[in-house]
Design brief:
The chain has 336 residues and is of the alpha/beta class. It has a single domain (15-334), classed as TIM Barrel (Alpha-Beta Barrel), CATH 3.20.20. Helices cover 33% and strands 17% of the residues. The protein has 12 helices and 12 strands. The chain has a 12-stranded mixed sheet with strand order 7-8-9-6-5-4-3-2-1-10-11-12. Helix 3 (83-91) packs parallel to helix 4 (108-118) and helix 4 runs parallel beside helix 6 (146-158). It binds S-adenosylmethionine and iron/sulfur cluster (2 copies).
Length: 336
């Protein structure tokens, strides 16, 4: 019945992103600027976070809707203890084909092998510069690239699929587009450039700070010729390219200059169990409350159907049309 209802709907609920914690050991200037997320910033107390039991129960329900992919994110997801145990439990759920983690990679040296053994398929590692001086600025904590690169190596050794994500912000790290492309062309890891977005309310975004997909492609193509590739699957957010003289790939996620809302299949759960149908939403739907007041699976399913079938999010399209924006949730809370 669940699948029947959603088959008729034009944006399937394929891709579930779960933030498991709102804290982070970085303070990336475009996400958790240190002046806002200082030492006295109040992160969520543990009892507000969804427990592993609650996450597993929800994913079992989502799997009935045709959700196949689960991405664990944060904050920094690997700051939550025993993530391998969560991965192992999610892996056993019927219908879940792919489990990924988005991470700054600092804890991968210790955790990559046990995460792989638990059933993790992929890691997306965020790295915004290959030169230390630039990276130390972007991460807001003066951290050099070597612990991240070691984390990537650990993931490779463990046999995890790896993608690298680089947010490009004008005046911050556009100097790194080519050095990053060259570095990861060599290693063969897919590098994905992400246009700087106006998530949250504190990152000082305006259109002048965006380096567009076209500018990124032109910069690389002038030095290392590129050829476009077909999408791997419906709803893939990155435009893919390969180098003419190698099999290495890059992708560009152009949520600002070329919005893709009409094929957006993502559903997001915050660390405290609020469901969001869009990264730029002002408010979520309180699912944790349903879990904690003994709602039945059927009641939760009915609620999800109601939310998803009336979904009409197209924030990025509206931004491009110049529509005014409301207060938004923070990236560290919803997890990207
Ligand atoms: N801490 C983990 C990490 O950095 O990979 C996971 C959470 S982070 C919020 C998820 C993704 O959001 C990262 O790839 C990060 O670069 C991206 N991100 C954060 N703020 C952004 C912004 N303003 N514009 C575009 N991407 C952003
Ligand atoms: Fe932390 Fe990730 Fe946000 Fe950077 S992007 S501050 S690593 S949550
Ligand atoms: Fe999806 Fe919202 Fe992003 Fe559009 S703006 S692609 S609806 S998350």
């Amino acid at each position: 019945m669940v699948q029947y209802v959603l088959d008729k709907y034009d944006r399937p609920m394929k891709d579930l992103r779960i933030s498991v914690i709102d804290q982070c050991n970085f303070r990336c200037t475009y996400c958790m600027p240190a002046e806002i997320f200082g030492d006295d910033y109040r992160f969520m107390p543990t009892e507000e976070l969804l427990s592993f039991d609650e996450i597993v129960r929800l994913v079992e329900i989502f799997a009935k809707f045709g959700t196949e992919k689960v991405r664990l994110t944060g904050g920094e997801p690997l700051m939550r203890k025993n993530m391998d145990q969560l991965v192992a439990r999610l892996k056993q759920i019927d219908g879940i084909k792919d489990i990924a983690i988005t991470t700054n990679a600092i804890f991968l040296v210790k955790q990559a092998q046990k995460l792989k053994e638990a059933g993790l398929n992929r890691v997306n590692v965020s790295l915004d510069a290959i030169e230390d001086e630039v990276f130390q600025q972007t991460n807001g904590r003066g951290i050099k690239t070597s612990p991240v690169l070691k984390g990537i190596e650990a993931a490779r050794k463990a046999g995890l699929e790896i993608k690298i994500n680089m947010v490009v912000k004008k005046g911050m790290n556009e100097s790194q587009i080519l050095p990053m492309a060259k570095y990861f062309k060599e290693t063969g890891d897919t590098l994905r450039f992400i246009e700087f977005m106006d998530v949250g309310n504190h990152n000082g975004w305006n259109m002048d700070t965006v380096v567009s997909k076209q500018q990124i492609i032109d910069t690389i193509h002038a030095e290392m010729p590129l050829e476009p590739l077909e999408p791997n699957y419906y709803g893939e957010v990155a435009n893919r390219y390969k180098y003419s003289d190698s099999e290495a790939e890059i992708g560009v996620i152009s949520s600002v200059t070329d919005a893709f809302c009409s094929s957006c299949t993502r559903v997001r759960l915050s660390a405290d169990g609020q469901l969001y149908t869009c990264l730029f939403a002002s408010e979520g739907y309180d699912i944790r409350n349903m879990l904690r007041n003994d709602s039945s699976d059927q009641e939760i399913i009915s609620k999800l159907i109601k939310i998803w079938t009336k979904r009409d999010d197209q924030y990025s399209v509206e931004r491009a049309e110049g529509k005014p924006t409301k207060k938004k949730i923070e990236m560290s809370y919803i997890g990207g």
